[in-house]
Amino acid sequence: MGLNEILSGRRSIRRYKAGAGVDPALIREMLEAAIQAPSWKNSQTSRYYVVMSGEMLEKVKASCLPEFNQKNCKDAPVLIVTAFVKNHSGHDNQGCPVNELGNGWGAYDLGLHDSNLILKARELGLDTLIMGIRDADGLRKLLGIDGNQEVVSVIAVGYRDTDPAMPARKGVEEIARFY
């Protein structure tokens, strides 16, 4: 599958095939793709917490996601919680921000990594949904994520049980200026 086919076929999927598990080796491939993304001074501050066991999936869904996201990922067999190490990317060696974005660079780097992750998922025949509305403190407690990390999202992973149309996209003329 070529990059253009991956890009045009990727969707935010809100319905997954019930009972269709995902081979852990495929999740590893997704994580390996994420690792290849660039980061501020190669700081590599992205962190992933992969939830695959039935018991833990139910705990995360029930206690850390609002009702609408519980419904959106009801049959997803994998949830990946994404985070980044704070005060490193975009900071000097003493932990001081080097520009006004501060920890925004950690979030930026994580977004680059997550983009690789979800595009690799599509190449492997998997689909994803990135959920930003979640209980970060609940996830931190349940998964043992320490306080030096910023919890950003929960990504559902599985095999789609729906085929939504691609939403309209803005044209280059609407988003770019050429000088």
Which terms would index this structure?
alpha+beta; globular; 179 residues
Furnish the topology, listing elements before pairings.
Elements: H1 3-9, H2 24-35, E1 46-51, H3 54-64, H4 67-72, E2 78-85, H5 104-123, E3 127-131, H6 136-143, E4 149-158, H7 172-175
Antiparallel strand pairs: 1-2, 2-4, 3-4
Task: Note down, in words, how this protein is organized.
- It contains 7 helices and 4 strands; from the N terminus they run ααβααβαβαβα.
- The protein is an alpha+beta fold and 179 residues long.
- A 4-stranded antiparallel sheet has the order 1-2-4-3, with helices on both faces.
- The N and C termini lie far apart (34 Å).
- The model has no long low-confidence stretch (mean pLDDT 96).
Summarize the structure.
The chain is an alpha+beta fold.
* Share of β-strand residues: 15-25%
Global geometry: globular
The H-and-E topology, N to C, reads as: HHEHHEHEHEH
**Parts with pLDDT < 50 across at least 5 consecutive residues:** none
From the N-terminal CA to the C-terminal CA, the straight-line distance is: 34 Å
The portion of residues assigned to helices is 25-40%
Please provide the count of β strands: 4
* Total helical segments: 7
The main pleated sheet reads as: 4 strands, antiparallel
Strand order of the largest sheet: 1-2-4-3
- Overall structural class, as computed from helix and strand content, comes to alpha+beta
Please tell me the overall pLDDT: 96
- Work out the radius of gyration: 17 Å
